[in-house]
Amino acid sequence: xxxxxxxxxxxxxxxxxxxxxxxxxxxxxxxxxxxxxxxxxxxxxxxxxxxxxxxxxxxxxxxxxxxxxxxxxxxxxxxxxxxxxxxxxxxxxxxxxxxxxxxxxxxxxxxxxxxxxxxxxxxxxxxxxxxxxxxxxxxxxxxxxxxxxxxxxxxxxxxxxxxxxxxxxxxxxxxxxxxxxxxxxxxxxxxxxxxxxxxxxxxxxxx
Length: 207
Description:
disordered N terminus
């Protein structure tokens, strides 16, 4: 699974277009956190949780998948907008898609979950990072308290929905507990996301 990723040999003119596009996206991304916070305040509010945190369900594994033939790594800015979805990967390798969805179009419903990454992602390979993201995707539909785990090379991880609730306008929210172990070092993090009116997931801040 630890394959070297091929990078396209781009012409000078096309490289200029790519660099210009990345610069524009980075500038837009610099104002995105404030915009996302405004969005949270205006639409989400504090989720009304249905109970205490649980982590007691049967364990399910994520099967590591090979990259499809059409996939080629393209360097991306850590912060960008895609179809009105704020994509933010503060740690690890920034790339298109999410989890085992290797295209943004396919991953659109889950792209807002990119902000759930934490410092441990910086020590992960892309395959490990995608496996963990896929565990997050699976956890959006798994029963509360049911861990979704993965194992790839020197890394492993686990994600579970530990609480479920709703916003004042009735949209589903879930609190996720994540853990990642790389070369024997384990880190944990919590994050909360809610379903938006268009059916996509968006990370929200605690109020």
